[in-house]
Each structure stands twice: as C-alpha cells, then as structure tokens.
Specification:
Layout (H helix, E strand, L loop, with lengths): L1 H11 L3 E7 L3 E8 L4 E8 L7 H14 L6 E7 L2 H7 L6 E6 L5 H4 L24 E4 L2 E2 L5 E3 L3 H13 L4 E4 L9 H13 L4 E4 H4 L5 H31 L6 E4 L5 E3 H4 L9 H17 L3 E7 L4 E7 L2 E2 L1 E2 L2 E3 L2 E3 L3 E2 L2 E3 L5 E5 L5 E7 L18 H8 L16 H15 L3 H27 L7 E5 L3 H12 L3 E4 L6 H8 L2 E12 L5 H21 L7 E10 L6 E5 L1 H5 L3 H16 L8 E12 L20 E6 L4 E8 L8 E3 L2 E4 L4 E4 L3 E5 L5 E5 L2
Parallel strand pairs: 1-4, 4-11, 5-6, 5-9, 9-10, 13-23, 23-24, 30-32
Antiparallel strand pairs: 1-2, 2-3, 7-8, 11-12, 13-14, 14-15, 14-20, 16-19, 17-18, 21-22, 24-35, 25-28, 26-27, 26-28, 29-30, 31-34, 32-33, 34-35
Helix pairs in contact: 3-8, 5-6, 10-15, 11-12, 11-13, 12-13, 13-14
Organism: Mesorhizobium montanum
Protein name: Hydantoinase/oxoprolinase family protein
Pfam families: Hydant_A_C, Hydant_A_N, Hydantoinase_A
C-alpha cells in the first residue's frame, strides 16, 4: 500500500523543465511543467557586472509568479554568450603557442586572405596570441604519422619559462600533422604539466583533430582563450543551482544545435561559442515543424544584433567557418549570419552628416533612453517609440515601462543635427536598420542559392517582431509567422534540443572499392567514440549516428561534405558514394565531372541522443474577427495614421484582423504594416500574409 501511494505521489509530482538563454540585454526563461503542459516564460535584464546573478533572479521570479519549485526541476538547459563576448571584447586569457620551429608565423599567415577583398581599407584582425608569445619547438612529424625528429624537451623547458615570465596563463600546443599522430603534442603537453602545473594546456589534436594546421591551431586557440572565464562561469553556475536545490544536471547548448553537460563545457569551451544563436534556430525549427512550415528564414533580433538562418524541410542548416567576432570557427555549427543591428543599436550622425545605426549597442546598462536607466543616446527601440509602434504596455514581463519623453529627447538631438522633424528622423533610423538587414539576408540567400519568396519569415527575440514584417515586405516575402512567445524562442530551443556530439578523423584515400574497408574502420571507431560520449552525458537510450565524408576531385584544394548511408559502407558500394558526391557537387556548383577521380579527406560522425518528446496543446480555430483593445496614432513613414492595438492574450485561434496594427504581449511588441492580413492558427502562431 505504501509503495502504491509513493508511486502515485511520484506521478503527481511537478516535473519542471527549464531552458535559459542569456543575450546582451535580457536573459530569457522558458519553463515547462511536463505533467500539465503548462508553459511559463520570463525575461530579466542582464547584470554584466555579475554574470549569472540574473539567473537566480529569474528563478526567484518564476517561483513567485508560476510556482516553479527548483527541487522539482528535472531538466535545466543553459545557453550563454560568455565565450563569444570574451572573444569580441578581447578579454580572454593571455596565451602562449608552442608550434614547430620554423612555423612560428602560422596564425599570422593564416590563409593569406583578406576578410573583404573588395575593400581598400580592409585589415586583418590582430591574432589572439602576439608574435612574442609564439615559441618554435624543434620537432617534426611526417604527413604519414612517422616521427623524424622527437620534440626537444630542453627547448620546451626554456619556452615554458619564457611564457610564464611573459604572463601566460595557458599554453596551446599545435604541431604539424598531429591529426595523423598526436603523440608529439601529447608528450609536450605532459612535459608542460610537469614543469608548470599552474598553467592550463590544450593540444590541438584533442580539441579538433582535423587536417590543415591553421584551422586546427586557431580552433585550439579559441578554446584556450575563453577557457578561464567559461570554466569559472560554469563552476559558479553549478554552485548557484546546487544552492537552490536543483537536482537536474545542468546542460549547455552547443554551437552545433545540440547539448552537452556543464562539466564537459569547462574544457570543451569552443563547442559552446555560438550556443545562443544556435539554440534560437533549433527552437525555430521545432516550432516550424509543429506548424507544418518547411521553409523558414529566421530573424532573431536582440539588444545587440540581428541573426539570420535558413530552415529547409524543417531542419536547421549546418556548416563550418562561422565567424566568432573576427575569427573563423572550424567546428560544425548551425549556419547563422549576424549583423550588429539590434533593439539597442545606437544611432549617430558621423562627421559627414550621415545618419548611421550600430554596431555599438546600449545593452542593458544603460540601455535605450526610453528604458529610463540612464541611456541618453537614441537607439532603434527609441525610434520605434517615437513613431508610436512601441510603448503602449509594460515590457519584459512588467520589468520595464517606456518613457516616451526620454525617447523623444534622444531622437530629437539627432533630428536637430540633421535638420529634420523628429518623426522623420526616427523613421530614417528604422529604414536604415531594415536596409542593413536586407543586405545581409540577400548575401545569405545568394550563398544558399534559394529564392526567399518561397520562404516564410519567422521573427523572434525581443526585437524580431518589431521589425520583422517590414523586412519581409522589403524582401518580397509573402508570409510571416510569429510564435506565441517570440521573446523566448532561444530558451525554448534548449528545452527541445537533442544531445549532439561531432567527431572527425582525417583519412587521405582515393574513393574505390579497395579503400572502403579502411573508411568503414574509421567510421566504426568514430561510432564507438560517439556512443561513449553519449554515455558520458548520461544518455542510455538508442543513439542516432549520422555519417558524412569531406570529399573532392583530386587536384581540388577544398572539399565538400557529402552525407552517406551506412548501408553503402556495409555492402561496399563505392558507386553509390560516388554518385552522392556528384549530386552534391552539382547542387552546390552547378556542374560535376563524371570522369573525375574522387578523394576522401575527412570522415565525420554526429552522435545524437534524442531529447524529451515535448508537445504543446492545440486549439481548434473558430474564425472570428478580432476586436481591438483601442486605437493609436502611429507615424508609418507616409504620415500619422490611426491603427488598431490588439492584446495577444485576447487573440484566440482563428482570430483575424488587418494591418496596420500593433499587437502587444508580455515579451515583445508586434508592428504590422498596411497591406497585411493577420490570422492566429491552432498553435497560437500569428500568421501574416501580404495582400497583393
């Protein structure tokens, strides 16, 4: 009897799953009580002076408002910008680089490419490790993995002493051909640990064992550069959660859209540099699948930046070479394009009298002028207030009240310098912000070879709904879909994300029937590595193993990734692999060479452990016109117009209305231009259709 009661109590016990995402201005919370399906969300202003304190504030507010009991939290997923902000602000650890003697210029030479070949004023960023902190160690490994010269340990000892004297906190070891044989790097790492146990050490092959010394070295450097701050932050996070009695093992969102545990994040820091932007795309992909939308352009606008990504067939797109500040990231990540235009982006007039917007942001402190937190410079948010689109309800779940007078004053100072009316100046700020996003999105569409008129725009983040419909109109897109809680989509992404680990092994081999056994052996080794990784994350269910190869025609300098079927390897079907390569090459470059010899460079494997199967309730559409709460005066660019204001909570599935209109809700405000038909679907998404 007692056991039956205990089992019944366990079934009725609350089961909270919480996703958290920290941006430049707000930290977002998405909390799901799994037994009832009740979803709670929240935004809290960040505390740059004490990163992590806002997390405790948010948990306290959720407990007070929603009854969240931290001791009943079975899943906690966290996305953070600590790593990427460390790189952008160049506040990382002082590092030394140990490389082969004669190759000390590897990170300065890079790929001998300028970031913008068409700019006369383009310059390359200064390396994260200065030249005087790069030490050449006499050692050499051949490309076949055989050693021709053992590492000179006396030189290592001298280099360690010099690195410490110059203030290094950590050392990166990156030798030639360590992707083939990592023994030299490992021996030097052991020697450094013995000589200087107070320094942390990362070897390039253990971070990302890929061919090409610059890519491997730079990835290891990014990992070491952020390591102390990320490790310290995560340690404090674990302690804070423990103090609240949270039993869930903290998980982190990764750049590849998956998850890993916080303990791994302390040393595999490079894997979480794009965690926030990636989890937003994963959340958007999940919402798009729920709504039956298979081609989505995401628009995530926060306080500092606007991020764009494509979702095709309901799945996020992946790639390598995403920029972290000024530096490329060579591990797999969700493909996201970013631009420094957000709600807090500051508008200014340059020396030539030209109005500019961003990339400088007001952040959360002091924030836009209209927040009343000390900001005095006009931002995109202030321009929205001056035009009348924003400021008709409390913002950020009641934490902010908009001061129209402060916004008028800030924009008015720019208007005086430009000699234009305040409303026209505010509209010009919005037009510039939208035009800069337009340029970036067009680049993304060109690279992907897609027609955006076939896509639906999904705006989210606190600022996405403010500008999303205007951007869609300029791009010629016909549909916009805004989820019920757009302000916390990135936090939702953490809730629905899977565990995902990426593994790579470089093998140079021509594609032929005789080479397949070696390739199959490499995949089997990676598969075991992937299963072991999932087990270390606490995943004991079935694993999904995704296989691919980096391949090229012999003589090409760079390769393309080709998805493989395990059956092709099992039956030794080299012809099927060859045809897959030709199809992929044709798709990307519009041609292929059926007689060309093919070479395999890298084999890749993604090990995926499915996350919890979550679903939100649906409601049948009733199809009734929405009744506006009141009417407003808004400057639309053509003049002052009277528009309807709708409360999102009053809109039920099937509600319809027309633009221009304003929709207010707890986490954002939706600005809807004229010529739009709006409808709420059964998932409570707000769907906009541009009328011809």
């Amino acid at each position: 009897m007692d056991s039956a009661i205990a089992a019944d109590e366990a079934r009725n016990r609350a089961d909270w799953k919480v996703g958290v995402d920290i941006g430049g201005t707000f930290i977002d919370f998405c909390a799901l009580e799994a037994n009832s399906g009740r979803l709670a969300s929240l935004k809290v202003l960040t505390t740059p002076e004490d990163p992590g304190a806002e997390l405790m504030t948010g948990l306290t507010l959720l407990a007070e408002r929603e009854g969240l009991d931290p001791t009943h939290m079975t899943r906690f997923v966290h996305g953070t910008t600590v790593g990427i902000n460390t790189i952008i602000q160049r506040k990382g650890a002082p590092l030394a680089l140990f490389t082969n003697a004669g190759f000390e210029d590897v990170i300065e030479l890079a790929r001998l490419r300028m970031p913008d070949m068409y700019s006369l004023f383009c310059s390359r960023p200064d390396p994260l490790i200065s030249r005087d902190m790069v030490f050449g160690i006499p050692a050499r490994m051949r490309a076949d993995g055989s050693e021709t010269k053992a590492a000179d340990m006396a030189a290592v000892e001298r280099a360690v002493a010099a690195a410490k004297a110059n203030g290094a906190q950590g050392i990166i070891v990156a030798f030639l051909h360590s992707w083939r044989n990592a023994a030299q790097e490992a021996s030097v790492k052991c020697a450094i640990a013995r000589l200087a146990p107070d320094l942390f050490v990362f070897a390039s092959a253990e971070v990302w064992p890929v061919i090409r010394e610059y890519e491997r070295s730079s990835t290891a450097i990014l990992n070491g550069y952020v390591h102390p701050r990320v490790s310290g932050y995560l340690t404090a996070l674990e302690e804070r959660l423990k103090s609240r009695g949270v039993p869930a093992r903290p998980m982190l969102t990764k750049s590849n859209g998956g998850l890993m545990n916080a303990a791994e994040g302390k040393h595999a820091c490079v894997n979480m540099l794009l965690s926030g932007t990636a989890s937003g795309v994963i959340g958007a992909a999940w919402l798009s699948r729920q709504a039956g939308e298979d081609r989505i352009l995401t628009l995530d606008i926060g306080g500092t930046s606007a991020d764009f990504a494509l979702i095709i067939d309901g799945e996020a797109q992946f790639g390598t070479g995403e920029l972290i500040g000024e530096f490329p990231l060579h591990i797999p990540s969700v493909s996201v394009s970013s631009i420094g235009v957000g709600g807090g982006s500051i508008a200014s007039v340059d020396a030539q009298g030209v109005l500019r917007v961003g990339p400088e942001s007001a952040g959360s402190t002091p924030g836009p002028a209209c927040y009343g937190r000390g900001g005095e410079r006009a931002t995109v948010t202030d321009a929205m207030v001056v035009c009348g689109w924003l400021g008709h309800s409390e913002m950020a779940y009641g934490q902010l009240r908009i001061d129209n007078g402060l916004a008028q004053r800030a924009v008015g100072e720019l208007a005086m310098r430009l000699g234009r009316p305040v409303e026209q100046t505010a509209q010009a700020i919005l037009d510039i912000a939208v035009s800069e996003m337009f340029v970036e999105v067009e680049k993304l569409a060109s690279r992907a070879g897609v027609d955006l008129r076939e896509f639906t725009l999904m705006p989210f983040g606190g600022g996405g709904p403010m500008l999303g419909a205007f951007l869609a109109r300029e791009l010629g897109m016909k549909r916009v879909m805004a989820p019920r809680r757009p302000g916390v989509v990135s936090a939702l992404g953490g809730l629905v994300a899977d565990l995902r680990g990426d593994f790579i092994r470089t093998v140079f081999s021509p594609l032929s029937g005789t080479s397949l056994p070696a390739i199959r052996e490499a995949f089997e080794a990676l598969a075991q590595e992937g299963r072991d990784w999932l087990a270390a994350q606490g995943h004991d269910a079935a694993a999904q193993l995704n296989l691919s190869c980096d391949m090229r025609y012999i003589g090409q300098s760079y390769e393309i990734e080709v998805v493989l079927s395990p059956e092709w390897l099992a039956r030794g079907d080299a012809a099927a692999i060859e045809q897959a390569f030709h199809r992929t090459h044709e798709q990307l470059y519009d041609f292929h060479d059926p007689d060309g010899e093919i070479e395999l460079v890298n084999v890749r494997l993604s090990a995926v452990g499915a996350g919890p199967a979550l679903s939100f309730p649906e409601t049948a559409e009733i199809g009734v016109p929405a009744s506006p709460a009141r009417r407003l005066l808004v400057y639309t660019g053509l003049g002052v117009e009277t528009v309807d204001l709708h409360d999102r909570q009053a809109l039920v599935p099937g509600s319809t209305f027309q633009g221009p209109a304003v929709v207010v809700q707890e986490d954002t405000t939706f600005a809807i231009p004229a010529g739009v038909q709006a409808r709420v679907d059964r998932h409570l998404n707000l769907l906009l259709t541009f009328v011809e």
